[in-house]
Amino acid sequence: MKHTLTFTFIISILNLIYAQITPSPAPAQKEPILLQHAILHTGNATLLEDVDILIEKGKIRKIGKGLSVLEGGKIIDISGKHLYPGFIILNSNLGLEEIESIRATSDAREVGANNPNARAIVGYNTDSKVIPTLRSNGILLAQIAPTGNGFSVTSSVVQLDS
Question: What pTM value is reported for the model?
Fold first, then answer.
């Protein structure tokens, strides 16, 4: 019984510690990465099969067949896997509304009749718990556009990982 309580206490403490971790941008790429044998969706309805993609310093440098990487680079075989371009979510209230039922967490609607001079980025919550979910599903950019009557607020575009 004593061991069960101790174990439960330790798990509870670990949950509290990990619950406080805020997502941060990925670290800078240290070594070149070569993705081999990918099925690449280019974004313009073109499908490239069995291609290699060379990524250096966080940017795609080359796409083609039979590419090689310099010594010290990482080679990853992704045969049969599909690669897509990053998605952009448009006209969202991401980061402006965390919990709909609590008014204090909602900046999705500007107070007042017309405030076209207000900017959405001012109310944007970079620590939103929704952002990691969107990033893991391939959404890299988001247009933050609050709602309102007439001319509400100037929208902003944010990068979900920089």
Answer: 0.62
